[in-house]
Inverse folding.
């Protein structure tokens, strides 16, 4: 049943069960592949990883979290836009950043690198979705346009090259998707690497700040408790 839900979400048929938080960032209608990649990232981000977090040997703190082409957790929107010359004047980016955060402090925006001055550096990237908590990047998903890999371990091996992250054999798979999805839960952050789509057009890497996630869960729990009448 879980695998069926993941497949449905990956095809872009989103429901409230597939989302971490209501998103204001909507991909354009002419980028269906990118929309599917975002949907797939949202769905796999919801997979329960409590077992994986206890079994991993990764004790890296946030200081050991890798950056992806200068992008990293904890950045402000201005710092992100500084990586993409011209993005501050982009209508789509400005529209999302001008919207107020949710009642829990959550907001988001999308960057499509091929529109900006750094497009050569991001030539293999289709889009990047940033989730913010209290104005700082709490998670971001980098969607890649290939290449097509026979197994996700090949993508993981490429991703960890030059980083402090543990080797591939210390990453955790997900039952039913072991050849497509691998996850690594460290002390302060989590990484998920996914392969899929024709030619690898749905490949992505998801980075999450676990402390920010805990704060968000606490805020939701408090709001729920406050809204629930006492017996």
């Amino acid at each position: 049943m879980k695998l069926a839900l993941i497949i449905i979400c990956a095809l872009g048929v989103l429901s409230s069960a597939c989302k971490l938080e209501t998103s204001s960032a909507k991909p354009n209608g002419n980028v269906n592949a990118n929309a599917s990649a975002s949907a797939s990232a949202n769905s796999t981000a919801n997979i329960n990883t409590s077992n994986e977090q206890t079994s991993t040997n990764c004790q890296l703190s946030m200081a050991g979290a890798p950056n992806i082409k200068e992008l990293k957790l904890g950045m402000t929107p201005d710092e992100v836009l500084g990586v993409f010359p011209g993005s501050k004047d982009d209508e789509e980016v400005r529209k999302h950043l001008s919207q107020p955060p949710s009642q829990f402090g959550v907001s988001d925006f999308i960057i499509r690198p091929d529109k900006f001055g750094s497009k050569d550096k991001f030539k293999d990237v289709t889009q990047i979705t940033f989730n913010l908590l209290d104005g700082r990047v709490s998670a971001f998903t980098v969607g890649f346009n290939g290449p097509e890999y026979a197994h996700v371990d090949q993508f993981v091996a490429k991703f960890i090259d030059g980083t402090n992250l543990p080797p591939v054999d210390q990453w955790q798979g997900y039952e039913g998707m072991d050849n497509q999805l691998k996850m690594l839960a460290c002390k302060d952050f989590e990484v998920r690497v996914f392969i899929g789509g024709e030619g690898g057009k749905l490949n992505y890497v998801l980075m999450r700040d676990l402390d920010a996630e805990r704060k968000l869960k606490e805020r939701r729990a408090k709001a729920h408790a406050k809204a629930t009448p006492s017996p």
